Amino acid sequence: MEVFRLSGIYGPGRSVIDTLRSGTARRIAKPGQVFNRIHVDDIARVLAAAIDTDTGRPIFNISDDEPAPPEDAVAYAAELLGLPIPPIVAFEEAGLSGMAASFWSECKRVSNRRIRRELGVELLYPTFREGLRALAVQ
Fold this sequence. Notes:
By secondary structure, this protein is an alpha/beta fold. Helices cover 37% and strands 14% of the residues. The strands form 3 sheets. The chain has a two-stranded parallel ribbon with strand order 1-5. It starts with a strand and ends with a helix. The model has no long low-confidence stretch (mean pLDDT 92).
């Protein structure tokens, strides 16, 4: 049995593109905080490759190539859409609770080397930039 650990999932209807368009996006900043992300299409590619591969490995990180500060993704998406970049909100002032606060409780930097090396997967969206560009035109 294999375990697949997913990074921050995004895709159509579930991304900063959508929150910017709805006017609800926030640029929350926490010094040193980075997250890996993964586009839903790349999740499907990894799982399909794993079905056909006997690796003997129990755990795979399904993530993109570039852990990045969350505020960078929001700013990049705003630029793509030609919208104003939301102001920075300090993590301590963001008022996050429950699942959101838990998600931010630790830095989420992981390596996807194993999915590339052992499953032979090349990501369609190796960073948030490619993924958000694709979503911006949908």
